[in-house]
Amino acid sequence: MAEISTIARPYATAIFNLAKENKSLSDWSNMLSLLSNVVSDSQIKDFIADSKVLDSDREKVILKICKDKIDKSVENFIKLLIENKRLLVLPEIASFFEELKDADEGVVEAHIIMAEEPSKKTVDDLIKSLEKRFNKKIEGKVEINKSIIGGTKIIVGDTVIDASVRGQLDNLAYTLKA
Q: How high is the pLDDT of residue 59?
């Protein structure tokens, strides 16, 4: 079976191109997020994966759940995914779509890991510093992880800024072993 990213990326790229052409990136983003949440629900996931369920029933259920929140082009997209047995790949498609949208808008996501809950001002100051460093708009996602002991670890794309106590202890241990 092909990698999920190999399957999801072409769908996301096609949707992104269509949405950009129609100036509906935000609408598609919202609809894909909704669909992603729907198919990620454990009951719906089991229903979709059940081989005894007909494709027409899958389509009816998904469209009934999302009916008033999606447009005709998204309905067609759902039908295509069902026909190609790719409905459960929707969360990855939505994720790739968001990456393309963010790249188009010059937005980069920063994964900020801290040992304790930071104040809003701390996060805002950190994001401003990151925006200055990367010269892009940064969307920060804060995660609390006590295993880093203290300090901050930031992941922006392929760049990792590790100013955590755990990172420094690991570096010290590595240096002492060498």
A: 93
